[in-house]
Amino acid sequence: MTDTEHLVRHIEQRLQRPLQPAIRQAFLHIPREEFVSQYYQKRENGLSWKLVPASTQQVYQDHVLVTAIDDKERPFSSSSQPSVMALQLEALEIQPGQRILEIGTGTGYNAALLGFLVGAGGQVISIDIQEGLIEVAKRRLSTTGNISVLYGDGFAGCREYVPYDRILATCGVRQVPQAWTDQLQSSGRLICNLHTNLTSIFLCADKCPSGRLEGRLLDIDASYMLMHTGSYQPGKPLDWSAYEALPQRHVQFAEPVDVLLKSPAFCLQLQALVPGIFKKYHGNREAIYLYLLTDEVAMRVDGDSLLFFGDQQADIEQKIKQCVQLYRASGRLPISEYRFSLDGDCLHFSVAGKAFQLCLQNE
């Protein structure tokens, strides 16, 4: 069995089904080792990284591999988990001869897979804002005749080769840039990873004749690094002492809250019912806790209950209970059963006859 055959086997074991024939051939044809010669591995203390050579055994596992970190040891590029890549490639329904825009070149491995799928008559435009990554990817893809790697701000897309039949973003966003919609041809398809304050979801959107994006959510359990413009803007630190000084009260729910918060479907509904809610981890040497927070209230997650900090909790408590009831009434349907449309920065989604609206915030 060849190395690429081993990788395909690992992917299919993860998905518990065979890959679509064209996607299977792409992974068999493109060696991942040509795009990952080394990667960063967490040290035993879990606080820092070490650069290690990429062994053949490691490269052909179904694992994400961090390939670049900044001077503060924050990862900013990786070779994505192959099974996640496969699910996106299948959902794109790529046809030979199509023109595809990839946002986030990274190692160039995904661009090579796209190039194989569109064939000699197709074209792949891959852009990245990290010039060092671009130069390396160009060398790795130099023998292909249908892939162009360019420097560019992902938020702006790439106007030079519009329109695109498909757009694939291999990075996370908090809002879908209007440029992506504008540069996608009518009936074209976009896949991207949308980060909300509570969860990560993958949009598979088709462009309607009206110009609006409509589609479904993909059942992908992953979260890409957020797209950036080249500079890091740290968030404002929270004043935890202000929350902890507020009145406290335990509230029990019909189902374990910690389990519910692992469901993207539940989190998406909760985000729509309680706009502005977000989550943070906080603790000390003894314990780390997950908190849900709003401007007025903090809630520490404790199994099937929440420990509320604040005296303005009644409305939030009721909305969380309402969300639990809605989620149960919908039969706990997976995220793949959700349909959506996107109007500007407003995500409209529905499931089991219930409609929701979520205003996306680029924070």
Automatic annotation (TrEMBL):
<dbReference type="GO" id="GO:0032259">
    <property type="term" value="P:methylation"/>
</dbReference>
<keyword id="KW-0949">S-adenosyl-L-methionine</keyword>
<dbReference type="InterPro" id="IPR000682">
    <property type="entry name" value="PCMT"/>
</dbReference>
<comment type="similarity">
    <text>Belongs to the methyltransferase superfamily. L-isoaspartyl/D-aspartyl protein methyltransferase family.</text>
</comment>
<keyword id="KW-0963">Cytoplasm</keyword>
<dbReference type="InterPro" id="IPR029063">
    <property type="entry name" value="SAM-dependent_MTases_sf"/>
</dbReference>
<dbReference type="Pfam" id="PF01135">
    <property type="entry name" value="PCMT"/>
</dbReference>
<dbReference type="GO" id="GO:0004719">
    <property type="term" value="F:protein-L-isoaspartate (D-aspartate) O-methyltransferase activity"/>
</dbReference>
<dbReference type="GO" id="GO:0005737">
    <property type="term" value="C:cytoplasm"/>
</dbReference>
<keyword id="KW-0489">Methyltransferase</keyword>
<protein>
    <recommendedName>
        <fullName>Protein-L-isoaspartate O-methyltransferase</fullName>
        <ecNumber>2.1.1.77</ecNumber>
    </recommendedName>
</protein>
<keyword id="KW-0808">Transferase</keyword>
